[in-house]
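Per reviewer request, we include the raw input and output of the structure prediction for the construct analysed in the revised manuscript.
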Amino acid sequence: MHIISLWIASMMIIWLIYLVYKWRNPKCNGKLPPGSMGLPILGETFQFFAPNTTCDVSPFIKQREKKFGRIFKTSLIGRPVVISTDADLNYLVFNQEGRLFESWYPDTFTEIFGRDNVGSLHGFMYKYLKNLIHRLYGPQNLRSVFLPDIQKSCQTSFQSWSSQPCFEFKEAISIMLFDLTAKRLISYDPSSSTEDLRKNFVAFMRGLISFPVDLPGTAFHECLKGRKNAMKVLKRMMRERMSSPDRQCEDFFDHVIEELKNGKTLMTEGIALDLMFVLLFASFETTALTLTLAMKFLSDNPKVLEELTEEHEGIIRNRKDPNSDITWEEYKSMTFTSQVVYETVRLANIVPAIFRKALKDIEFKGYTIPAGWAVMVCPPAVHVNPEIYEDPLAFNPSRWKGKTQLTGGTKEFMAFGGGLRFCVGADFSRIFMAIFLHSLVTKYRWKALRGGNIVRTPGLAFPDGFHIQLFPKD
């Protein structure tokens, strides 16, 4: 009996050794990039989510890049991944979608954003939804609808904030942005609504880029709970609108439902709901984080603030009526403002990782990326690369002089993605930040009181907020 038990134990040990060997040495029809697959199943997931408190590349990426080079393998959340900090490979990944690569995110992301979210769709369906979204964020709507909306929202918000002895900027700007965009998306009015819809998205955001453990009390669990509650509201809205055949198109959701009713399109209820959920989230959180960082940078760099203020006061001096609203031509003339926006976006790195999946075995610079493997493009590694940007961690808007007319991602700048999936809300984000800064520096000044420190896990967050006091200019 003892011999049999010993034999079983030995076989189990041999089997475990074999499994570990297979995990650490995946099959490949060529030469895999160097790297480590970490522990079985877990891989290097814990290390990937380790906090980082600077604008620099995360220690996880930096250490492996130094050891293995700009292309290396690892495993995250049970999946083999090739991580790229190589500008040439990044460019190839973005510009060969549908041929060599396709959009892909871990199963946990799909669970969070929905199986039918726009980021998980491909080919004709993705292009169809992208064209639909352009109705909301296209040039004509930005100029005729959002430009006056943003100005009015700024005026109302600044008056309220300046009456307070102190307020937390990130929270305040998030509320302002959510109310502004939700009005155009779903006609949401927080003053008349019985539900605090934004509260669900706040819970969602806290766990979006967190370790995926769905247990009560964890950030990931709260994230899923926030999505569930938000989806309940959207489903109820859809049912009410679908049962009102005489309803006129008043917002973007109405246009989506019209597409749903049209039997000639590929729109389904699942796609429609996931689309609205993603748009509500993306329309406020990423811009709010970027603008909070911009306020921190301007507070710490008075010379930049002085030059920014001079540009906007010059715009007012050239008006016939100093109190008139901002025109589209004035927005387009905000040269230094555009430089401030691009520099902030570069250092913010709101999207720390962009995933794709290899459709076939891909040979690149002597390595093979196996079909089915994920490829993670790492924008921060490009944006703070000293070979591309001099003194890359310094906030220096002037480095963008003559370079702010980017209409898509490049090898050196991919904060809004690149290729077919270049962010459709990029223009809205830029316009909002520019108009916000114009309204701020021409009529107000502020004092930073506390907070402003950042942490990345790997997404950007302000754990202590950024508390300021706002004063009207004399």
